[in-house]
Structures are given as structure tokens and as C-alpha cells.
């Protein structure tokens, strides 16, 4: 072997190609190798879409899930386990006792249930399936016990509590809760005391919702607040067989300092509105007065009559003596109506125009002529015949 290797090495050095190695013969027992198919050339081009395939639109929105169903506890009843031999024996003995003590046992076996009540019967500690009532309900002595449930609506006052609002104001909230029992079985089995649990849940829910709102929202939207509390409490008490019908916020008490600040703010708003209304009224009055003055300035007689009307209204309101300078120019239009001989009458004494002026002035200042004469007679000196009488007196 060494000689052969040396010969092949020497021939490879001389430049000749090395001879190919001898082919190995496959063993006779081994099967012939399988021919692998040639690889399929992959192209980067994507296959064209089918022409008849419709165009896909946007993906469908996610389906809206329904309300979450709360898992209810499993309640075993006497009907679920009918193969209990001990219970059958107890029922037989109870029936035998009823037959022996008949008819006195009837008074122990029959129960009268009112219209607004329902009865749950427990036999040997397990509740019987279904709610009994109203009317007569049959029970077996010694093995059956019953509990009455009132289905009427209860009204309970939620205890008052101090709550800090979102804008850091401490308030005291009073509320009233109205609820009723919808499922007597759940109300007795799922919770210890349905009434007390409902009131406590309402109290904590009220604190949580009120604390998340500002003071202005609480004062202006009480109906929305009551509805929100009612929905939240009813969502919790539903599993207990209790239905919350209504929640009313009776009173929201504020601190004294906050009440004063709100009152001053409201008063300032009212005063501002009153000033605005008064300014608008003065503006309208000034515009109307301007229009009236424009009309009066076109007619002097109208202005003079308005002057006299003002004097009359002043004299009618108060009984007092008013010294008011009376311009003679006011009477000029009335004096000129007598005729054209007024200029000549100033020189003579028998002018009828002068008498007319005198009568107009006398009537205006002293009334009629008879009133002037009576005023003169009332101020006359007493006679000589009356003087001794006054002296004797």
C-alpha cells in the first residue's frame, strides 16, 4: 500500500492528473438509491389573482359582546337528590304522624301566605325547588321549616356622610333608596341580610360617584346623579335578587363659608344683570325723549303746552306755594289772536284788544272776575258798627 501511494504521489508531482479512485460496488443486499426530482425554480413574482375573485373590503368589525352573565352558585334542592333513603324515611314517618294526629295536624301543616309575601320551604336543611304562595301552603311537621319573604318596595335613608369632591370641597350628602326583592331564593341564600347589604352598597357607591364629580355638576344635575347611582347599585345587587328602583339625592349641604361665597357670587350676578337692564332702559328712554324733543322743537305751541302741563302736575302732587318766573312770551301767541289793532291800543284806554289781554291775564292768575271780587271783599276792613261788638268781646 505504501508503494502504491508513493507511485501516485510521484506521478501527481510530475504533472499528471491523479487517477480517479476506483468505484465502489454497491452491496447486493441494499436497494438502489431513489432519484430525487429536480428542485422547482422559485420566482419572486407573485401569482396573479383570479379574475373572478371579488375584491375584499375592510375587515368586519368585532362583534359586540352582550352583558356579562354572572355565574350563579349551585343550590342543591330536595328534588335534585331523590335517592336519599334517609329523607324518604323521614317523610314517611312525618306523614304517619300527620295521619295519627288528624285532624289536629292540619293546623300545623297548612300555612296562609299573603299576596305580598312568598314562602321558601326548607326540608331537612335543603331548600325545596320553587317559591310557594300566595294562598295555602302544605308543609310536613318536624322536617319542614319555612321563611317568608316580603316583596313590597322598601324605602331606606342612606346614612349622611361627608364627601370630598373632585375640586376639593367637603359636602354632606343625604339620599333615599327604594328597592324590592325580585328573587326570594337568591335574597335568602346568596346574602346574609339583603336589606343591610343593599344600603351599605348604596352608601359606598354614593361616596365613589360623588367624589369623582365637581361641585357645580353636583348642584346643577341632581337627576343625572341619582340615575347614575341607581344603575351602579342595581348592577351589584342583581346577583342578590334585589332590584333597586330609585335613588333620590335629598340634600347637599355645603360649609358655611362656601354658602357665603356662593351667595355673594349670586348677588353680584343679579346686580350686574340689573345694571344692564337699567342701562338698556335709560338708553331707550333717552332715544324716545330725543324723538319727542325733535317733534316739539318744530312746533312752539306744543312746547309751551308741555310747560304748562308740568306746572299743573307739580301743583297737584303737593299743596305748596311755588314761585316760578313766568315768561310773558308764552302768552304772545294767545294775545295775537285778537286782531291787528293791538299796536294801536297801547296808546289809548278804550282799545278792546287791551281789555282782552287784561281778561286773559286775570283769568290765568286769579281765576274769573267773580273770584277776584270775592277775594277783594274777604280782605276788606270791617265796618264801624261791628267795631264795638269786637271791643265788648
Automatic annotation (TrEMBL):
Swiss-Prot/TrEMBL keywords: Coiled coil, Membrane, Transmembrane, Transmembrane helix
Cellular component, GO annotation: cytoplasmic side of plasma membrane
Alphabetical list of SUPFAM superfamilies matching this protein: Band 7/SPFH domain
Classification via InterPro entries: Band-7_stomatin-like, Band_7, Band_7/SPFH_dom_sf, Stomatin_HflK_fam
Gly residues bias spans: 337-352
Coiled-coil boundaries: 262-289
Stretches with biased composition (Basic and acidic residues): 46-55, 383-393
Every Band domain range: 108-266
Protein name: GL22263
Organism: Drosophila persimilis (Fruit fly)
Classification lineage: Eukaryota, Metazoa, Ecdysozoa, Arthropoda, Hexapoda
Amino acid at each position: 500500500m505504501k508503494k502504491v501511494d508513493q507511485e501516485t504521489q510521484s506521478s501527481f508531482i510530475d504533472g499528471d492528473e491523479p487517477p480517479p479512485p476506483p468505484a465502489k460496488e454497491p452491496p447486493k443486499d441494499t436497494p438502489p438509491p431513489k432519484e430525487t426530482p429536480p428542485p422547482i425554480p422559485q420566482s419572486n413574482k407573485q401569482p396573479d389573482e383570479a379574475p373572478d375573485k371579488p375584491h375584499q373590503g375592510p375587515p368586519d368589525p368585532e362583534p359586540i359582546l352582550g352583558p356579562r352573565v354572572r355565574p350563579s352558585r349551585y343550590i342543591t334542592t330536595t328534588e335534585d337528590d331523590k335517592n336519599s333513603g334517609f329523607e324518604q324515611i323521614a317523610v314517611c314517618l312525618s306523614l304517619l304522624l300527620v295521619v295519627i294526629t288528624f285532624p289536629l295536624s292540619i293546623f300545623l301543616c297548612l300555612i296562609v301566605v299573603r299576596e305580598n309575601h312568598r314562602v321558601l320551604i326548607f326540608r331537612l336543611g335543603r331548600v325545596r325547588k320553587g317559591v310557594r304562595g300566595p294562598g295555602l301552603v302544605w308543609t310536613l311537621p318536624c322536617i319542614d321549616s319555612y321563611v317568608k319573604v316580603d316583596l313590597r318596595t322598601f324605602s331606606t335613608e342612606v346614612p349622611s356622610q361627608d364627601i370630598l369632591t373632585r375640586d376639593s370641597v367637603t359636602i354632606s350628602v343625604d339620599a333615599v333608596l327604594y328597592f324590592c326583592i325580585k328573587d326570594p331564593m337568591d335574597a335568602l341564600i346568596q346574602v346574609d341580610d339583603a336589606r343591610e347589604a343593599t344600603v351599605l352598597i348604596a352608601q359606598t357607591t354614593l361616596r365613589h360617584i360623588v367624589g369623582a364629580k365637581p361641585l357645580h355638576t353636583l348642584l346643577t344635575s341632581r337627576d343625572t346623579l341619582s340615575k347614575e347611582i341607581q344603575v351602579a347599585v342595581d348592577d351589584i345587587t342583581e346577583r342578590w335578587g334585589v332590584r333597586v328602583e330609585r335613588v333620590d339625592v335629598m340634600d347637599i349641604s355645603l360649609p358655611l363659608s362656601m354658602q357665603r361665597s356662593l351667595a355673594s357670587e349670586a348677588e353680584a350676578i343679579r346686580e350686574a344683570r340689573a345694571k344692564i337692564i337699567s342701562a338698556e332702559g335709560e338708553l331707550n328712554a333717552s332715544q324716545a325723549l330725543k324723538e319727542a324733543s325733535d317733534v316739539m322743537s318744530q312746533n312752539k305751541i306744543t312746547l309751551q303746552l308741555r310747560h304748562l302741563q308740568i306746572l299743573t302736575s307739580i301743583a297737584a302732587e303737593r299743596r305748596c306755594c311755588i314761585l316760578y318766573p313766568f315768561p310773558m312770551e308764552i302768552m304772545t301767541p294767545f294775545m295775537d289772536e285778537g286782531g291787528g289793532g293791538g299796536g294801536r291800543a297801547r296808546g289809548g284806554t278804550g282799545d278792546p284788544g287791551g281789555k282782552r289781554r287784561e281778561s286773559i291775564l286775570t283769568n290765568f292768575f286769579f281765576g274769573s272776575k267773580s273770584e277776584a271780587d270775592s277775594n277783594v271783599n274777604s280782605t276788606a276792613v270791617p265796618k264801624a258798627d261791628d267795631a264795638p261788638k269786637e271791643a265788648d268781646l
